[in-house]
Design goal:
By secondary structure, the chain is an alpha/beta fold. It contains eight helices and seven strands. It has a single domain, classed as Rossmann fold (3-Layer(aba) Sandwich). Bound molecules: nicotinamide-adenine-dinucleotide (NAD). Nicotinamide-adenine-dinucleotide binds next to helix 1, helix 4 and helix 6.
Length: 250
Amino acid sequence: MIDTVALITGAARGIGLATATLFHAEGRRVVLLDRDADALSAAVANLPGALGVTCDVSIQQDVAQALAEIEQTCGRLDILVNNAGVADFGPLADTDFARWRRVMDTNLDGVFLMSQACLPLLAKRGGAIVNIASISGLRASTLRIAYGTSKAAVIHLTKQQAAELGEVGIRVNCVCPGPVNTKLALAVHSPAIRAAYHDAIPLNRYGTEREIAEAICFLASDKASYVTGQILAADGGFESTGVGLPALRT
Ligand code: NAD
């Protein structure tokens, strides 16, 4: 495993950093990519041997430059985790086109651009892509007109990629996290939303970054060598329970 290289986008903090840390502990070489240069250097400093690449996944030239740097420095790529994402909750009436585009730029275009740019390196030895969507892509709700739609698109993009890339030996799967206490969630989960999540989730709690990272690392690993095109909700049971009315609890 020591010579395999895993690239994680949005890895300066949160779920991306937890995933990079887990891959690193498994003995893989990790490449952390993020647009927040300061947070990125702090994260890389704690992972000996890790490479940090500053890049905005929604900007095509940035992505091309990042891949050139990774190819030159590492010479190979085995795993891509498309984790970089932004959340912006609002109703249809208040979501102007610029707001819609900001969400789509990173959450959808970023996954497309990064996957396409990594393809030549991943196809050399066969590899794995794990896309990070959300329970908001599986279950519609209020306030997620842009975010939920972007994540539903990532789920379908995963299936498109799996259908096409199997024959070049690349597996593509998707993890849909439930709520996790990261900076992203803290910005959009009001106290009322937090309380409602606790009530509606069978496990009665938020997940941890580590719990989501474990699901990602499994799908990226050889343990999942016959798994492709799958959507795994790591969500405390939220997706499986429909409306999950607290009043129906015993
Ligand atoms: P976070 O905000 O803590 O971390 C996201 C990281 O992505 C940040 O370091 C940020 O700088 C980086 N980033 C954002 N846009 C970028 C871009 N265009 N280019 C490069 N880097 C960029 O968020 P998180 O909670 O760890 O979220 C990680 C992923 O998990 C996201 O795709 C998010 O939608 C998804 N998710 C999170 C939750 C949750 O409750 N936290 C739930 C479901 C899905």
